Amino acid sequence: MHTEPDCLFCRIATGELSADRVLETEDVVAFRDINPQAPTHVLVIPREHVSSLDAAEPRHAETIGKLHLAAKRIAAEAGIQGGWRAVINVGADAGQTVFHVHLHLLGGRPLAWPPG
Ligand code: DGP
Asked: CB-based contacts of 66: which residues, under 8 Å, 6+ apart?
């Protein structure tokens, strides 16, 4: 499995850097966002380094799917009522600042649409 030694989220995934982890599986790790935008704001990442959804290939399909299923599980375990949002920022113009693909799980408050 490909990892990048200088990638912040790879280093969180391996445990080299600490984070407030909420779920770990063979393929994905989830932890609370350091700058939460909602009462529940969790980042779900693959253990494998993929820089962005733009860099994902067909062989990553199962892992990308697992990010979403992990978010569903975390939202259920958090007891979020009435809905939640899964967001993947793709590229700098969309607000991506960490180039290791990650799904934002946001919930616990009403979420406006469209996002800014
Ligand atoms: P994005 O803008 O979509 O690339 O989201 C990156 C998110 O990562 C942002 O909401 C803040 C969060 N973040 C950045 N550095 C850290 C960190 O060291 N620990 C944690 N828990 N979250 C981080």
From this structure: 25, 27, 28, 46
User: Sheet harboring 103-107: ordered strands across?
Assistant: 21-24, 28-32, 40-46, 103-107, 84-87
Catalytic residue annotation: 102
Q: How far is the CA of 6 from the centre of ligand 1 (A)?
A: 15
Is the pTM above the cut of 0.85? yes
Domains of the chain: 8-107 (3.30.428.10)
Check if 40 has its Cβ closer than 6 Å to any atom of ligand 1: no
What are 41-97's pLDDT values in tens digits? 999 999 999 999 999 999 999 999 999 999 999 999 999 999 999 999 999 999 999
Q: How many CB atoms lie within 10 A of CB 40?
A: 19
Predicted local confidence at residue 116, as pLDDT: 79
